[in-house]
Amino acid sequence: MKTMNKITKLGLAALLIAMFFASCVPQKKMLYLKEVQMLSETQSVNYVNDRSVNYKLQPGDNLYIRFVNIVDERSAALLNGSENGRSNTVSGESSIYLHSYTIDEEGFIELPLMGKIELRNLTVDEAKTVLQTELDKYVNQTTIIVKLSTFNLTILGEVNHPGMFKVYQQQINLFEAISLAGNMTNFAKNNAVKIVRQTDNGSEIITVDMGSADILSSPYYYLKPNDIVYVEPMKIKQWGFTAFPYATVFSIISLLVTAYALFRPTGNN
Fold it and tell me: Which range of residues forms the domain containing residue 255?
């Protein structure tokens, strides 16, 4: 019976130890930029990254285009498609879409006066130069403003608020993108974040380590329109619960302790 008591105690101890280690996610697996956090307050390190906006326009992209002429505002308003010479106010996602020009499947947009112009595989700045050159053939002293009106970004996996997000800026990095989705969960595998990117040859899948400071100098630190970011879960997530079931484990322990107290021998053997 003493042997049985030892086995029971060892079993309870093993269960408690397993519960402790299983319920803890190592902190190093949750940290961003681990090397940077190891630096002292007086240390610093620089990481060079490419901030150039080199996204090439593709069919389906929407461009916000506006004509400005301080001499003849009425002509500019007509080119902008305004009624009665008054400019239309652009606000809200649907309004921005309706007042944008969509690049068709062949890579062209069609503008008033200028007709169809190919913009496929040009950057926004290059597209602006092309459009301004064409505009100067027809109208004097008129400046054209060109912006990418919608920057779609999809974030999936172990983040608090997965979904598709619209970014109203030319550029966004990985940390800014993850913050849009409410940061990673405690079960996120931050050293295996996947980026799915469309290329001329199809889809490219890149794996990046956001736990390493090297991400700051990675060519994939800055995202591009229509990128998909997928954050993989840790293996612990395969247990089938998103948080360790403390109540269940403690209930089992209580049951074992109670059973031991009821059935343990009262005499010496």
Answer: 2-25+246-263
